[in-house]
Amino acid sequence: MPEGMNVEVAHKLSEQEHDERRRHRWEEVVEIFEAVVLAVVAIATAYSGYQAARWDGRQAFLYGTSSKYRVEAGVAATEGGQQRLLDVTTFNTWIEVRAQGQEELAALYVRRFSPEYRVAFYAWLATHPFSNPNAEPGPSFMPQYHNALLAEADRLNAQATAAFEAGTEARDTAEKYVRDTVLFATILFLIALSQRFKLRNVRIGILIVASGLMVVALVAVVRLPRA
C-alpha cells in the first residue's frame, strides 16, 4: 500500500476518534445535567406534594373550627335572645304592676331582671321616662344595656368568619402546590422524553425547555407560604 494512502487512512481514523470523543463528551455533559435536573425536580415534587397535603389538612381543620364557632355562636345567640325576651317581658309586667300601684310586686320583678338589664333599667329610670317625652322606650334601648351572651355570639361569629376565610386561603394555597406538583411531573416527563432522542439539538432543546419550567416552578414554590 502506498505511503500516502496509509497517511490518509490514519488521518481519517484520527478524525473519527476525535469526533467520537466529542460526541461522548457532550452526551456525558447532557446526562450529568439531566441527572441534576431530575434530582432537583424529584425533591421539589415530593416537597410540593407534602405541602399540598399539609395545606389540605389545614383547610379541613379551619373549616371544622369555623363550623364549631358557628354552632357555639348559635347557642349563645339563642340563649341571649331568650334572656333579652325574658327581661323585656318582665319589664312589661313591671310597668303594669307599677301602674296598679303594687310597689312590692314591682320591686320583685326588678329583682328578676338579669344583672345587665338591671343596670340599664336604673339608668333608664334616671332619665325620668314617665315625665320626659325624649326618654328611651325602655332599658333595652339604653347604651348601658349589654347582653353578654349576644356579645359572645357576635365574637364567635367573627371568629367563625375569620377561620372560614383562613380555610379558603389554605385551600387556594393547596391548589397552587398541586399545580406546581403537576408542573414538576411535566418536567420529569420532558426529561424522560429527551433521553429517548439521539439527535443532539432535539435533546438539548427539550432539556432547555424543561430547565426553564423547573426554574419557574421552583420560584413559584419558594414564594408560597409553608405549613
Description of the molecule:
The chain is an all-alpha fold and 227 residues long. The protein has helices at 3-99, 103-111, 115-125, 148-194, 200-223. The protein has one domain (28-223). Helix 4 (148-194) packs antiparallel against helix 5 (200-223). The longest helix has 97 residues, at 3-99. It starts with a helix and ends with a helix. Residues 1-19 have low confidence and may be disordered.
State the separation between the terminal residues, measured CA to CA: 78 Å
- Given helix and strand content, the structural type is mainly alpha
Query: Would you list the SSEs in sequence order as H and E?
Result: HHHHH
In quaternary terms, these chains amount to: single chain
List unreliable stretches of 5+ residues: 1-19
Strand elements, count: 0
Summarize this structure as a short list of keywords or feature phrases.
mainly alpha, 227 residues, disordered N terminus, rod-shaped
Could you give a quick summary of the protein structure above?
By secondary structure, the chain is mainly alpha-helical.
